[in-house]
Design brief:
Rossmann fold, 224 residues, 9% strand, alpha/beta, six-stranded mixed sheet, homodimer
Chain lengths: 224, 224
């Protein structure tokens, strides 16, 4: 190793924490101090803090919404090793592998999907949900990219598709993202599903996988 | 297919755009309208718009910084198929594969890295940079996760490591993220490197890969 943190430099030196545990502890100390967490359960606090961590903004905590049994049902499903269904490969990549018995499922790049999408003139993200049906029952759904995937899921549930234990619905962007999350929040009781969402335009693969990871950590008794 | 977008529902129906091209066009129409782009080159505008797209916030455009030849050097390196070095698998996953001749490089999960990190009591993210050295020359570096990786890269460059063509430095978070990006911005001229960064706490895998993707699209003559 040529590279040594303690080496002296001529002109510049950078003073920064290099110990991973110390970085994590200090990060969550700051997040807990900066984020409004009043009225949240212990598990909900963990979720909100990891969302804030993934996005770098304490103020997004106020946009998080939990249905009444979201954490409870999500924790149960994850503890039972139920399928985790992701709308995008980046979401799948973001889920902590050491805490799950099998890789999350993502059908976006399944060979059938481009044809399905083309036939309906719709996004690949929503076409991929045709392949979710047999895995939906008691699953944990993690949508971090495509509003169309979240809208399609709501439609499928309306038509009587099997219910996931929990929907983590957090697509990001300008067309349909805020609307799809508002629809999830407005309809979840009628559809009889539990959900965690982040209202507004913000969201994404890192935020949605962080939400799932926060629940996995609760099950593994790792608390911030 | 049981699922059909045009099917009538009893109680609810969702009105949303399902055509991927229409979604993209409308997204970037809104982003161009909402984001301050004055004084930016055509290529810089593309980068800022894709950053805004990935994060869902037009106001982050004001936090983006470009060194004087960042886009030019980045475009050249990508056109020449130089290595793309990523600090995290999610960053690698986010880079558009159809536009690059070979997969990006990420050494975070290389079998040597845990031992290197443990020996130095440092993060795996920074230890992985020991394996970057032979690939650095004229590369495009994309750091979207770990402040320690960005600090370590700056140290390596100070010690005479080969220079990347462009550093996209956009780690996210509370401990070291803002500081590492400020250090990149403050030191890049002394170090003789080009960079694109997003000052402040915000950043992440999606933002940093979106920046690289914006340059790849310019090279492929795909403009918003």
């Amino acid at each position: 190793m040529d590279v040594n943190h303690t080496m002296q430099f001529d002109s510049l030196s950078f003073d920064y924490e290099i110990d991973p545990k110390a970085i994590e502890v200090e990060s969550f100390r700051q997040i807990r101090e900066l984020t409004p967490l009043d009225g949240l359960s212990r598990e909900q606090q963990q979720v909100v803090m990891r969302i804030v961590h993934s996005i770098g903004m304490p103020e997004v905590g106020e946009q998080v919404r939990f249905s009444s049994q979201a954490c409870e049902k999500g924790l149960q499903a994850l503890a039972a090793g139920k399928p985790i269904l992701c709308d995008a490969e980046m979401v799948k990549q973001g889920i902590t592998k050491r805490m799950i018995p099998a890789p999350p499922l993502c059908y976006l790049n399944h060979p059938e999907v481009p044809e399905l999408a083309k036939a309906q003139s719709e996004t690949r993200s929503m076409a991929a949900l045709a392949l979710w049906q047999e895995h939906l029952k008691d699953s944990v759904v993690v949508i971090g990219n495509a509003p169309t995937a979240l809208f399609r899921l709501l439609e499928m549930l309306q038509q009587g598709a099997d219910k996931p234990a929990l929907i983590i619905g957090m697509p990001v962007g300008f067309v349909g993202a805020a609307e799809s999350k508002q629809a999830l929040w407005d309809c979840h009781q009628d559809l009889g599903v539990e959900c965690i969402t982040l209202l507004g335009r913000q969201g994404g693969s890192a935020v949605s996988s962080a939400t799932c990871n926060a629940l996995l950590r609760c099950n593994h008794n790792e608390w911030y």
